[in-house]
Amino acid sequence: MPEGATQINDVAAVVYKDAQRIYYVGMWPMYSHAEDDLASFRFIAAQLIVSGVCRQCELAKALGQNRKRLERAVKQLQEHGTASFFE
User: Fold this and answer.
1) Residue pair 85/43 in contact by the 8 Å Cβ criterion
2) Which of 79, 86, 78, 65 is nearest to 6 (CA)?
3) Please, which residues have CB within 8 angstroms of residue 15's CB and are 6 or more apart in sequence?
4) Mind listing the pLDDT tens digit of every residue in the chain (87 residues)?
């Protein structure tokens, strides 16, 4: 994992750098968003969960997020798709 990363699980981590959050899967940066970009955060979190990279409980614990909020984001992605986060 990258130096200074917050471990989500054995394969995923997040790095906070220059007001950005960068999400790594293995050693590869997969997603990033500005720290204050809630829509992108919700989409990326849901995508990580739906794709099986991490479990909801792992993400909630690592990032200090409410599990219900993550659950709603997953449901939104599954029922309404990516565009619904940015409308």
Assistant:
1) yes
2) 65
3) 2, 4, 5, 6, 21, 22, 24
4) 677 899 999 999 999 989 999 999 988 999 999 999 999 999 999 999 999 999 999 999 999 999 999 999 999 999 999 999 998
In the chain, the amino acid numbered 59 is: L
Q: Any idea how long the chain is?
A: 87
Find all residues with CB under 8 Å of 77, minimum gap 6, and list them: 43, 46, 47, 50, 84, 85
Contacts of 20 (CB under 8 A, 6+ apart): 32, 33, 34, 35
Using DSSP, state whether 2 is helix, strand or coil: coil
| Contact criterion met (CB below 8 Å) for 46 and 76 | yes
Q: Chain centroid to CA 87: how far?
A: 19
Range list of H helices, the chain: 38-50, 56-63, 67-80
Max CA-CA distance within the chain? 36
